[in-house]
Every structure is written in structure tokens, then in C-alpha cells.
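Readers of this paper often ask what the protein records in our data store actually look like. Below, we set out a record of this kind in full and without editing:
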Amino acid sequence: MVWIIYLPLILILSYVWFTGGSSNKQLKTEWYEVKESMIPAGDVDKISFITNENKGYVKLKKESQEKYKNRFGGETPKSAPQFYFVVPASFEAEKEFSEARETLPEDKKFKYEFEESVNYWSNILSWVWPILMLILLFYLMSRLSRGVSNMGSGGGGGIFNVGKSQAKVFDKNSKVKVTFKDVAGLEEAKVEIMEIVDFLKSPAKYTSLGGKIPKGALLIGPPGTGKTLLAKAVAGEANVPFFSMSGSDFVEMFVGVGASRVRDLFKQAKEKAPCIVFIDEIDAVGRARGKNVGFSSNDERENTLNQLLTEMDGFGTNSGVIILAATNRADILDKALMRAGRFDRQITIDLPELKDREQIFKVHLKKLKLDPDLDIDFLSKQTPGFSGADIANVCNEAALIAARHNKKSVDKQDFLDAIDRIVGGLERKSKIIPPSEKRTIAFHEAGHATVSWFLPNANPLLKVTIIPRGKALGAAWYVPEERQIMTKEQMMDEMASLIGGRVAEEIINNKISSGALNDLERLTKMAYAMVAYYGMSDKVGNISYYNFQEDGYNLTKPFSEKTAELVDAETKALIDKAHQMAKDVLESHMEGFKELANLLLEKEVIFAEDLERIYGPRVKLEQDERTDKEND
């Protein structure tokens, strides 16, 4: 509505401003033409000279207007003046007009006058226009200060409300549709969260026994495990006002803004109690104090954290306000934030187990048109270590792959291709690899597959491919066993499997290549962890130097140079041992190893069934056999 009113007014005023309120219908001429042609012919009746514009207007006599009608397109305008001319500032108008008049007979003489032009529109606009601009500017600033959000946050992002809370409020007018039924898995976490929701619905059940509801719950877990989704379910189930914001919303470049937003957030929460406040990625504002490198002790983030600590459990009371927060970096949070009375419960949300993954698949597969023969249990077994977000991505990617191939439903192969796409990257079948390099890659991957097949503690092989994916020129796909702990023997078998590709190159080509970079990187990290972290070295002993840098910025090692040399020597010894284990396996099964590599060159992709046909059934651990007998 503002623009509907202002835009036509601006256009009209601009037109008047630039035209000066005049229609300018006169035809332009020059003074010499007037002096030498019009005046001697007796056609000029009057010349009006505007002194402040150096401009003259020529009025023709009525009987002479017919002579100039061709100049005006066939008809001379009846309104006067008909012509105008412009002269320089040095033009002596009175002298020129007088001399031209004296040369004429009495019946042909013309009149002349001098006057100053007064543009009333310009005078009016000179003081009206700034006022209009100020009114428009004030209106726009008031709109910014009110903000565009009506979520009950006490103001938007305007310059007058920069210290107001940016939290979104979900209440009965903005119902969240996500419930606990939409959160698959996370059974233990849901039990603790549902207890908080139950307290808000029926507090007498707990207060009658003298109990108090926890003031806060901190959701801790890797990215994509469902922390934010669980918070959405709380918002959908609790039926109380739910404030949601990110930790980064508190952080601003202006001094005191973060603390002001914290105060405003809890002020609104107290007014709507009982309610729940959810702060996502709280590590943005809850980082341990004194560890912000490059900032002074009066850092704005620390001031915001101090205000948050005071509001959560300070001298005042926040009865009926429950704080939920989520982070995947709990190790860097301030200890004062983690204590009981602030976050009474720390709920760990790990990567989903086999049964949890099956439930998550069932949730995300509801919207897909599936092949009737699809086995959901098979999919859950093929995705160890996948988070809930990863599984959702697998389902979406499988649907896209099926649509790309013009299928009517999503089948097993589409899901396998989607898993490969997510884990390894996009297939690059068009990448040209020289035959010699392709042979090296085939023997490299066959080396991985062979060593892992004969070492009982290595992860079971799923398939091997020499089709480039992402940055990798080939890959061996495994189905990792879901172990909670790993023994030294298991880690040694894994290390031997990792270095199996490099050993295969040494045996076949008598030289090594750069293709083992990723294998060597993982191998070195695992060997160093065995020595320095897990105490699996006899010479170093049962000592762990894990997580010793408490402040996070100590760049020195916590042991002497002599111990560092010992750690390096023991790490190398473990890698050499793994190298020898892989070499022994490949040399003792050389015939099958070469057959496997040639089959890989022929088919480009081989599966565990092909290895079983060449090598026979995979070696099984004796302890696993004993466990199977006990279960029987």
C-alpha cells in the first residue's frame, strides 16, 4: 500500500521537477535568425527575455503566423510565444534588442521586456521533498524494527531489537506434527525424554513423592543420529510452548547482545511456563571459558555463556522452564554447564544398532514404491555405522537411481547402488586407465580381498571392484562386525588386511606405487593408537597418552624424546608384523590370488561368492564356533 501511494506521487513530482511546470511547446531557434530574418520582415510582435535563464521567448504577429506553419508541421500554434532562443551569459540583451528595433520603420517595430523566472513547483519541492523522504525513511526503519516475524519472539531482527531473542515459538497455534512414533530406534533416549514430557502433562505424579523434574537434558551424539528430530518430537508431544533456537543465534559482533538475548529468551519462557527451551548446537556458545584463542578474557561468547549459566541455575528461579540442548562436541563444553542442576541428564545418542537401523528403514521406506521381494533386514545388515540421516539419504538415493532407470519400483540393486554411491562416490566408468595401471589396481584390490578372506578377525568381504569411484581407483567393500571392543589380534588382522594391497604390488610388480596412500594413513593411525592409546605394546607398557591435552592447545607431547622414539619404533614394529602377515597369506595362496586378480580384470566387480568358489569357505574363529555350540 505504501508503494501504491508513494510511487505515482514520486513520478509526478519528478516530472514537475525536471520540466519546471512548463509544457515547452515553443520551437527552438537562434538569436541570429530572429535578428536577421524575423525582425527585418516585421514578424516579431514581442520578445520576452528571462534574465536569470539567458533565454528569450518570441511572440509572432497574427498576420505573420501563416509564414511559419511548415516549421510546426502544418499549423502554427495559436498560443504564444511560438519560438525561443538561448544566448550566452555575455549577451547584452538590452543593447541588441534596442539596435535591432531602431533599424525598423515605425509600423514594424516590436516590443521587448525583461523578467525573472520563478518556478513555484521547485520552491515548493525544495522543502516538501526532504520531508517526504524523511517520512518514508522513518516508515521503513519502523518496519525493520518491528521485524517480519510474528512468532512471539519479542521482535525481529531490526536495529532497535537487536538484543531480543531470536527463538521460534511452537505452541497450540503452530503445532509440530512430529511425534515419538516418527523417531525410530533411540529407545533408551526416548524413555528419558518421555519422562520429562510426562512430567509436564501430569506433574502431580512426581511431586507427590517429593521429586523434582530435571532442569535440563543434554543430547550428545554424532551428527545425523537424530538429536534435533528427538527435540521436534518433544515439541509435538509436550503440548506446552516450545522455544527453539541455535547456539549461534546468541553470538553477535555487538557487545552485550548475546547476554541480552539470553535474558530475553528466559523472560519469555518464564511468562509462558511450563515450557521447554531447546538450544541446538549449544557448543557455539557453551565452549569452555578461557580457551578461545585470540580473544581476551572479556570475550563476548564468554559473557553470553555466563548469562546462560546464571539463567539456568542462578540466584533466581526458573520453575517450569526445562532446557533441552544438543551437541556433537560435548568434550569442549564448559564444566559449569555440564553440572547437575543445569543439565541434570546427559543423554547419549549413539549410531543405531542393527535393530534400530531396521526400524529407521521402515520409517523412511513408507513413502517409496518398493519391490515386494525387498528384504529390509538385508538392508540393515548392509549399512553398519550408518546414522539415521545416512539411512534417509540411502532411501532417497535409491529412489532416484530407480527413477533414472525408468523402473516402476525400487528394488534391492537400487539400494546397493545407493550405498555404494554414498560410501564410495559416483562411478566414473568413462575414466580412461592404461592397461598396466588397471592390472596394478586389480592385483592391489585382490590383495586386500585375499588377506581379509584368510585372516579370521578381519571384516567379512562383500565385494571388490576396480571401477573408479570418487577419488578412488578401486575399492574392497566390507561388512564391518559391530564390535564394542577390539582385541590386539583383531586389530593386527585389520592392519594386515589394510596393507595387503601394498604387499600384492610388491609381489607382482617388484615395485610399489602411490595407490596405497589411504591404506597407509589408516594403518599408521591404527598402529599408533595401539601403542600410545590402548597400551598394546610390551615395551611401552600399559600407558595411555590419549586425550592428554586438557586445554586443547598444548602442542607438546606428554612424554620425553626417548619415549617418543620408543613409541615410533613400536609403531613401526607393529606395521612390519602386519606386513609380514599379509605377505605370508598371499605367498601361500598365490595361485588363487592370481586367479582372483584376473577375474577382477575380466568382470571389474566380484562378490564374496566368487572368493568362496576360488578359496573355499571363509575361515571361522574357534571362539565363534564355541559360541555357536553354546547357543545351540
Q: What stands out?
A: The chain has four domains: 22-118, 159-348, 354-424, 435-631. DSSP finds 22 helices and 14 strands in the chain. The mean pLDDT is 79. The longest strand covers residues 44-50.
